[in-house]
Amino acid sequence: MRSLDEMLALSPWTQDIAPAQMERVRSTTVVREFEAGAYVCRRGERVNAWIGVIDGLVKLTCLAPSGKSVTLAGITAGSWFGEGSVLKGELRKYDVVALRGSQIAFMPEATFRGLLDTSLAFNRFLLMQLNERLGQFIGMVEHDRLLDPDARVARALAGLFNPFLYPGSEPQIQISQEELGYLAGTSRQRVNQALHVLEKAGLVKVDYSLITVVDLEGLRSFGA
DNA sequence: TCATTAAATTGTT
DNA sequence: AACAATTTAATGA
Fold first, then answer.
1. CATH architecture of the domain with residue range A4-128
2. What tens digit of pLDDT does each residue of A88-103 get?
3. pLDDT at position A105, please?
4. What is the pLDDT of residues A105-143, one digit of tens each?
5. The dihedral of CA A162, A206, A170, A185: what is its sign?
6. Angle at Cα A36 formed by Cα A34 and Cα A41, nearest 5°?
7. CB of A189 under 7 A from strand C?
8. What is the mean pLDDT of chain A?
9. Which residue of A72, A91, A122, A164 could cross-link A115, Cys pair, CB 3.0 to 4.6 Å?
10. Residue A147: CB partners within 8 Å, gap ≥ 6?
11. What pLDDT, on the 0 to 100 scale, is given for residue A43?
């Protein structure tokens, strides 16, 4: 995915948006590029845009009192996020960091609210997305307590390929094992071990800084 | 294009 | 956590 237009074409909520609204989305949404490691936005900033990942990969992260950072979610290309904070008009609760060079779209709050007021499809999409996220986070807590590390890595990885939340088309993700460790809540070494297990099981293919999902269903249910 | 080097990532203990 | 091995990216001949 390279351009905002391509991403809009992939986004489910654009399907029956009126042409005038679509034009407003196109003309007001700003695209910015970020290098690996750069902050897309920081905790505590006023939220004035809905954010879309056109290309690349970002993570939602927060700082534990001890100083350790915790990754709450990885957001892949094709996904929009941050609607919760826009709706509530609150300060941003987490840091957003680019893990790779990334192209990020910022849709101004006014445009976002315009869509809310005029499009039933948009409201439906948000409802589905919020519900999907809720399910994912509940699942994360459950898995964190019930599953062994191999399975946790499998779920964390599968979570990045939720077709509704992340309508990117490719079954690959460029992510280091260290970052996957932050996401799964385990050490890099354990991720390395787990990836070997998952590869032997025929669920993924592991390359340098790149993981290809071969069997998404198998990944989701691994260890259950 | 090829060789050299530094940095990032991975494999292992 | 530490160390070695491997891959990538950048540089210059």
1. Sandwich (2.60)
2. 999 999 999 999 999 9
3. 98
4. 999 999 999 999 999 999 999 999 999 999 999 999 999
5. positive
6. 50
7. yes
8. 95
9. A122
10. A155, A223
11. 95
Residue A206 approaches strand B within 7 Å at CB: yes
- Nearest protein residue to nucleotide B12, judged by CA and C1' positions: A189
Instruction: Of A75, A19, A16, give the one whose Cα is nearest residue A50.
Output: A75
Q: Please state whether strand C lies within 7 Å of residue A209 at its CB atom.
A: yes
Report d(CA A37, CA A142) in Å as an integer.
30
Question: Looking at residue A2, what is its pLDDT?
Answer: 81
**CATH classification number, A147-221, choose in 1.20.1070.10, 3.40.50.880, 1.10.10.10, 3.10.50.40:** 1.10.10.10
For residue A63, what pLDDT band results from cuts at 50, 70 and 90?
Answer: confident
Indicate yes or no: strand C within 7 A of the C-beta of A208. Answer: yes
Measured in angstroms, what separates residue A30's CA from nucleotide C4's C1'?
A: 45
Domains of chain A, by residue range, sit at 4-128, 147-221
Nucleotide nearest to A99 (CA to C1'): B8
Please state whether strand B lies within 7 Å of residue A187 at its CB atom. no
A195 CB below 7 A from strand B atoms: yes
